[in-house]
Specification:
The protein is of the alpha/beta class. It has helices spanning 32-44, 65-70, 76-98, 115-126, 145-156, 189-200, 217-230, 246-256, 271-276, 280-286, and strands at residues 9-10, 23-27, 50-59, 104-113, 130-135, 138-139, 142-143, 161-165, 175-180, 204-211, 236-242, 261-266, 292-296. Strand 10 (204-211), helix 7 (217-230) and strand 11 (236-242) form a beta-alpha-beta unit.
Amino acid sequence: MNIILGGYWFYYIYRIKTPVMKNILLLTDFSDPSKNAIAYALQLFSNTECTFHVLYVQDSSAYITDDVVSQATTSLYDSLVNKNRLKLIDYVAELESEFDTKSFSFKVIVDYDSLIDAVQQNITSKHIDLIVMGTSGATGAKEVVFGSNTLQVVRRIECNTLIIPKDYKYQQPKAMLLALEPTDLLSGRSVTDFFQFLKAHTLQLHVLRFTADAEQQRINTGDMDVLNSQMPDAPYQYHQIVQVPMVYAVGTYLQTNAIDMVGLIAHHETFLERLFLGSATTEMCKHAEFPLLIFHA
């Protein structure tokens, strides 16, 4: 294995701070990981005027015919939805009392559907800019329930997603690591969203560019052209990593550098690619110890 860590520092000052997240979808199942993720989001966006749409999804597959028959004496709506809506309203009231929410407004949503369908419908109807959810990661070879849901959202929903590990407590982020696979290009909507977020939160940037061989200087030059044009007067570090799996190199880098958040670009993969090859994004989600901000190409 070869590693090229050719580091570059460029010094600039950000011109503007741009609040870019106006509508944020907070997913909750009332578990500790989801509550921790929501607490993180409220602190991260404390200086941003935005609307938090707090969504609880009652999975329709959890109910069978006998359940519906047993509830025949009461409203089906009350039995399946209204109870959880009241619980969600109480939870939002707790958030409003615990956090400084002068810049926020809250909308509560209870949906009786599959998770993916409910999330997709709300992204469209509420013009969602960002999804926030917690994850419990993986236990051995088996993912826990909310961790599995996290992977489903990342794989199937085309919306930027912030994933917070279950035990990660908020600290004001100062530096982000952007990990780029060989096929990632610094262009398009995902990269625009990334730089807007970076500027809005005044984050120092570290870039790890993963390549299959050491001859891809063209990619490096293109990366730095974009970085120099998008980040006028801001410091960043850039490293090329050759023939090392992303999950290992990123883990090592996080141990030796002060990083508060990891950025990834997710690609649409075919079912066979996911089944037989997996992806670095999947592995990073399973073993996340730092917040992951995933942008969709």
